[in-house]
Each structure stands twice: as structure tokens, then as C-alpha cells.
Amino acid sequence: MLFNSLHFLLFLPVVVLLYYLLSPRYRWPLIFAASCCFYMAFVPAYILILFFVILVDYFSGILIESASGKRRKLYLVLSLLSNCLLLAFFKYYGFITTNIHDLLALFGVNVNTGHLNIILPIGLSFHTFQSMSYTIEVYKGNQKAERHLGYFANYVLFFPQMVAGPIERYDRLGNELRKEQSLRYKNLSEGFRLVLFGLFIKMVIADNIAPLVNLVYNNPIEHSRKEVIAAVLMFSFQIYADFFGYSTIAIGSARLLGISIMDNFKTPYLSTSISEFWNRWHISLSTWFRDYLYIPLGGNRVAAGRWVFNTMVVFLVSGLWHGANWTFVIWGALHGCMLLLERVFKKTKQKADALPWLKPLLILKTFAITSLIWIFFRAETFENAGTIFRILFFGNAKGTNEAGLGVAFSCAIVMLVVDIWLQHSRFDLKLRTLHFWQRWSIYALLLFAITALAGARKFSFIYFQF
Amino acid sequence: MGKKIGIRFCLIVLIAVLSNYLYTSLLYPGDFKEYSPKLYALQQSADSTDIYYFGESSNTSFVYSDSLYTSISGLCAKFYPTLYFRTINKEATHAGIYKRWLKIFEKKNKFPKALVVTLNMRSFNAGWIYSDLENSLQEGLVFANSGPALLNRFFLSLRAFSTITTEESEALVQKEWSEKQLLFPYKTKHKTVREWDDQMANGGYLNADGTWNQSKIELACHFIKAYALNIDSANPRIKDFDEIAEWCSQHRVKLYLNLMAENVQYADSLVGKDLVFLMRRNHDFLVNRYNHGNCTVVDNFDKIDGKLFIDQNWTTEHYVLKGRMFIAKNLAEKLSKDFKNQFVKAY
Fold first, then answer.
1. Most buried pick, A3, A27, A41, A434, via CB within 10 A?
2. Which residues, 6 or more positions from A28, have their beta carbon under 8 angstroms from its beta carbon?
3. Which of B157, B167, B170 would best serve as a mutation to test chain A binding (most A beta carbons within 10 A)?
4. Which residues of A touch B153 (CB under 8 A)?
């Protein structure tokens, strides 16, 4: 079920209503049933994969906690392996076999590596990562194993964030799900604000930019340099609005049930460096990689060579996490390289940071770099990415259709203004500081925009594919 | 808290009403034209049109060798130079879409004197009924819904109209082909489309050298999937056309069912008498059901020679100029029943 669908707009109030009507004792079955319904609206059979993840990690948690010595590690490894194998099978099987086939073909060996015609379960990377964080924390002794299967299932399944995050930790979401929430006006009001704002960001900003981006990226050779530049810049805004919009609706939906989930974005395009960008972009994933990959590898308290290795491993894995394609790996690698470069020029950056007038230029520089790197994220093939770069730098004689440019740029500007406005506070908190009529004027504007100006073609959330 | 929520709910309703007013006065005309161009064309022309021609791709398919790129409706209009003859044309449309177009006349309370509705036999088959092309057709109809314009615009963004995914479409078509029994008054080897298709695919045409004639087999299979069906009163398209017929009677609009020509010759030579039997029986069903009262069937079913079809490797109702001219003339002559005084002999 997509957030930007009539089904969800009917589903959510019904769940909220039932949630508060029911005694707190019966709320976990409701959340469980609602989450199953939500997920089964995509491909019903894939709920079994989720049940598998839940059962494996639920029992792993208990076993890890009760075991000692090498057995603890064994249970953890088994749990992580089963999650990773699941991911490998559904997400990377085609990628692995194609690469093996191509590699062998280089040596003249032609092997039929087979092909599985399976649709990637929506949000698999998200819920496996979320579930893995639980077993790791139990292993580390930071988290007590959950004995109630229902609550643990809801931690993995919780419908607002199950398919595209934020990737929550058990100590936070697990406890939130256990709390006895009472009906509070504040929760309803904040939840409503966030859902409304998220829908605006997704349906009005992202979906109005998407047609231009798709048009150019689907066939870049047919477009002029101007259009390609526009598409490259606009994709930066599209993916941000798309994912930020999703996360905001997720946070808002959870808030309606009285449940707090973490922020995933903090105005990332106002970052003055790539390292700052990664502290503000997809925060739940960045922190996951930091806690469960970067730090176990040694983090930055190691020799320079090892630190370079650690950084690159994290970004390469992050790239691969996004998609089973070398373009994603390159996207990750480029971010890693940029981060290393920043470290090399650390002193220069510190001097630059001391000059406030330079800040806008640093923001522009970071935005330009991330936009260029996004090309590998968005382009489906290296050939397409290469064509985009070629046209960007050398131009293209073709392409005169500039339809949609105006709409896309207007949306990007609105997004930028919103970001500047929200750079120190979240939307719902910002609204708290406003007068009643100011707040309601904003609601009116948002409602009008969502109903009258939203993109006429609906696009699925980009991060659903991961 | 109840009072607080109540006040805010009223505010939201007020915002919605004001937004609808703003939208209707400022943005709706542009959106209506952009997203529902056919409805817009109908709305714009409803005041001044005598005869409407509702058509699909058969009307406007041309071939390079045509000496004249004029549609069937355009050719027909030449027989009635004093009447306002307008065409509303969209590829892959069918009776289910046409009936929704009629709502525009009700909204404007203006009705034409006659309505020509083009139908081809394939539009009754499972492949067309469950086609995922339906999504774009439904999208164009969102503004035909009753209710506030702003709500319709919102539904357009949410795609809150009848949609079907490619996978669902494929599953439904396969189900019908596998399960629906084909009715013959005599014994045949093929009880379903799936069986027939498999038999043709596995026992079709051989070349002189003993190899399979793959292109001929594929075309024959396609003819089977396109025409092997029993049209009956349970067919959704029949129900749709029944509604159109009733609507026309109610509003005193003369109805012409322009039944398009099918390539019966090729069906016969490629697949054989069983398929032609089904095609003829379906044709008879349509003619018997609709050719009376307010409705006239313009029967072109087997009137066009196989060579006059543009697509020789596929089943379509696209005709070269000579074919289009024949159908246009046939239609014009039938129309003369109601518009005798306006009829002139164009060719």
C-alpha cells in the first residue's frame, strides 16, 4: 500500500480510530494485523519472508541472551547469515550470477548461470537491517531479548516504517510500541501536520519533478545540454523530496498512534561538506553503517591506510545496499572518495568554515558534487551515465523539448525555501511556534497544493525498490 | 478535546470548499483540457453538433500508399456537408469508455441528433477487456465523475480510479483463456482458447522443407486469441453497449452501431472454419441484439477484402483508403435513413 494512495488515506484513520478504541492490551494484535494488511497489499506471499525474518531473529535474540562463550557468537553469526542470505537470494542473485557469467565469459568459458524471475520484496533491505540491529544489540549486551513474539513482530513489521525506514533500533521503537498510549490531542495534531506536509513534499514536489527527470534519464541522447543539466539538478531534489516526504509521512503516521520514530533527514542540501551531508541524509542508514560496520572495522582510530579501507568498505557496501547494480557501487565509491579527499583538505576546510561569507559557496559546492554523483544512482546503466556526463561537458546537438522545465524548477525552488525555513527545526515543531491563523493558513496552502497541484501521474517511492 | 477536533474539522471542510471554488475557477479548465482531452472536445462541441462519431484506431489509421489521408468519419462527413459531424477518437476505446463520454451531454443538457459508435469484435475478447491499456483510458475519465472538481483532480493524482497492473491483466486473460469453454454445436478438438492456441502452436504450419512456418503459426495463434470467444449477454462490453442503447433511447438520440470489418478471409485460411463459425455467430448475435428500434447496425463485418487491411501480420481493423471509403459510404447510406434531406452523394 503506497502512502500516496486512496487506500492508505482510508486505512490510516481506521487504524488510528481502532487503536484508541481498543484497550492497550489488544493494540499489538491490531498493529500486527494492520501491518500485515499494509504489506500484503504489495505481494501477499512475501509476508512469509517477513515472518521468516521475525522468527529467526526472535529466537536468535533469546538464544544469544541465554548462551555464553562461543555459542553466543555462533547464534549471532547464524542470525546474520540467514538475513544476509535472504537478501542475497532475493536482491543479489541475478547480480551475482550475471557477474559470474560475464567474468567466466572473459576467459572464454560460457556457463549458464540461470536466471530467477522474482520480484524483489518491497523494503527487504530495510527490515532485514532493522532486524539485524536487534540481534547485534542483544549480542553486545545492550538490549534484552524480547520474549513477546507479538511485540518483536511489530518491531519488524510496524507499517509506517517497514518498507523504507527510518531503520529503527529496538531500544527505541520496541519501547515505543510497548508504551500504553493514551489519546492525546498533541499526538493527533502533530501526526496530522507531518502526514500533510509529507504528502505535499512527495505528491507536489517530487511527483512534479519526476516526469522531467524520467524523460531525460530514459533516453539522454535525445536531449540538449540544458535539459540534461536540469534533469541532473532536478533529480537531486526529486530523490530528496521523495524520500523526505516518505519519511515524514512515516513519522506522522506513527505519531498519530502516539509512537515516536527517528528523523531521517536534516536539510541535507544545506551541508557544507560531504561528511556533513552524510550526517544529515538518510540518518538511520548512516548511523546503522557507522555502528555495525564502520566502528567494528576499527572506525577512524586506526592507521591512515586502514581508515581509508574502512571508509571505502562502508561506502561500497552502502552503494550495494541500495541496489544490485555496479552503478550503485560506483555511487558509493565516489562518496567514499569525496570523504577521503575532504579529510586530505581538512585544514583548508577548517579555514573556510571560519569565513561565514564562504558558507553559501561551500553549500553550492557540496550540492554540485552530490548532484553529479547522483547520476550513477539514477542512471540504469553505465552507458546512460556516460551519455549524461558527455552531454553535460560536451553538449548535444539534439533536443529542443523543454516542456516541464518550468514546473520542475518551481518545485525545486519551493523545496529549497522549505529547507531553509526548516533548517533548525522539524515541520511540526516549527508550526508550534506559529500563531493559530498562521498555522491554519499553512494547512490551507498545503491542502490546496496536494489536491489541486499534485503531479497528475503517481510515482512509487524511489526507496521502495531497495 | 472533542470540541477542539470539531472546530478543526469544520475548518478543514471550509478550506476544502474554498479550495474547490478556487480550483474550479482558476485551474480546472486547463486540467480538464490536459487530462481529459476527449471529454473536453465533447464539452466544447456539444452545443453545435448534429452527429457524433465515436471511434478508435480503425478510424485514423493510414498507410503511405493511401492517396488521401482522410479518416472514415471524415469521409462519411462528406456525404452530409450541411450537418455538423464531429469525431471523438481515441485508440483502444470501447463501449465501456463511450458510455462514460455520454455524461458530458447530460452535464450540458445538450444532445446530438445521432451517435455513431464504432465497435470491433476484438473489443469483446478477454485480451481487450482486461488490457492494461485500460488504465490510460480510465485516467481520461476521472473528470467525468460526478462530485467536486477538486476531488476528481485529487483522485487523478492518487490514481484512485479503476486500474489494473500488467501482472493482474495477464493473470485474468490467461484464466479466461484456460477456463472459459468455447461453445460449438458440433464436436471440436479445442474446448478453450488455451487448448486451441497450444494445438496451433504445436501442430501448425510446415514449410516445404519440413521446418515450422513460425510467422504463419504466430499469426494463426493471434487470430485464435483475438476471435475465439462466445459473445453473450454476460459480456461486459454487451452490458456497456446496452447502457448506451438505453441512454440514446431515453434522450432521443439515434444510435448507429458501426460494426467494423474483420479479416474473415485470413481467419478462414489461417485457422479454419471453426474460427469463422465463432466470428459469424458473434456477428449474428450483435446484429440480432441491436439492429432494431432506435439502433441501427452498420454491418461491415465481412465486407472488406483481406488485402485491404493495413496490417497483414496482425489482427487489427485498420484499412487502406479503399476500405475506409467503403465503410464510410456504408455508414453514410445507413445514416440517410434519418438524414435523407441532408445526404449528398460524395462518391
1. A3
2. A148, A150, A151, A154, A177
3. B157
4. 451-452
